Amino acid sequence: MSVVFFQGSQSGRGDLSLFVENASGEAFDPAAVTYDVFSVPATGDPVQMLPASRVPQHPAVGEFYALETFLSATTPVGTYRIRWRVQKDPDGPEQAISPLEFAVVARS
User: Can you give the CATH number for the domain in which 34 is found?
Assistant: First the structure.
């Protein structure tokens, strides 16, 4: 796991990012991009955190990131997962992108 946040911090550009490219490797903006956040317990299935279908920040063509403000001082320490969903064309299917895991740790 490469992304770790302290309780009470906030994610920003470059932390929980998604970059979308076309078949030629050029950045492009799909018709829709959303994401869901899940809490990942040590045992059992991930639990989706509400709200569902969150809209990411979109600072540049093909660049999206999850701006998470739920990382309060009371956010439980543990593992979380972002599941991105991309719809490249307005009439096309939605694609789930490989999930990105991150951790929330206590401040010392």
Answer: 2.60.40
